[in-house]
Amino acid sequence: MKIVIDAHAGFCPGVLRAVEKVENLLAISGNLISLGALIHNPVELQRLQQKGLMTRPQEELLTAERLKDLKDRRVLVRTHGLAAAAHEALRQAGAQVEDATCPTVRRVQSLIAEKDEQGEQIVIIGKKNHAEVIGLAGYSRKPLVFEAEADLAGVVFRDRVAIFSQTTFDHNRFLALAKNIQERVRQATVHDTTCRHINRRLQRLIDFAASVDVLLLIGGSHSSNSRVLYEACRAVNERSFKIEGVDELDRSWLRPTDRVGISGGASTPRWQLEKVRDYLLELSAQ
Ligand code: SF4
What we know:
About 40% of the residues lie in helices and about 20% in strands. By secondary structure, it is α/β, with parallel strands linked by helices. It has a four-stranded parallel β-sheet, sandwiched between helices. The chain has a four-stranded parallel β-sheet with strand order 3-2-4-5, with helices on both faces. Iron/sulfur cluster (SF4) binds near residues 15 and 197.
């Protein structure tokens, strides 16, 4: 068996920046509460939790009763960002906010606020319950959020519409939905805010998946990005499998003559890929 790690895999710049920030903060003091899971990767999250990171559900901590408990506590805003009102609530509660919002997400938030201010109707294409989408929606007074064509049925748009995407939403699906809306609106501007890093990464991963016999994609089961990448791999290589770690690996997927490729989502660190590689090396030596 030949085993290759995808040269382009590893944390995306936003996650890398956030994890480094968390590690630096934890090195000063272990007192850091994350508003929701920092990344959708339970293995990496557990490593940071062992260093002192505490994760609490965002919707639970931002209630009026719980906010007062955050006075003088260090609170981490993750890469997905937070609505403007939630930032203000934390400030008023006296929390010490450590903001790890990805700069790409922050730019989308600012652009939404600007277009909303200019009187355009804000449309966000993304997963309705995704934390980033909830945050983005919080920069507009009356945003519309769509995830699929079916959501558009019966919707009456205003004359001027600004269309945005969740950064990790499937790029082609975004373009198709945006086109559909454009055809129904007098003046619609499409702001393609899908993450450039993810889009580039997708094409490279597709090439990589097509070049191996078996593709193992390592990623958290709740990672939106890992799911998108996995589906793209399956489209070019039906022997693609998505796992969180070696525990989920089924040996029957592999043959001794296979060239096995290992890759991961934007929130999968390289050490996790190397762990799977080492396991496969042991397996093939048996
Ligand atoms: S996927 Fe893109 S937008 Fe999301 S955290 Fe990474 S770099 Fe930022």
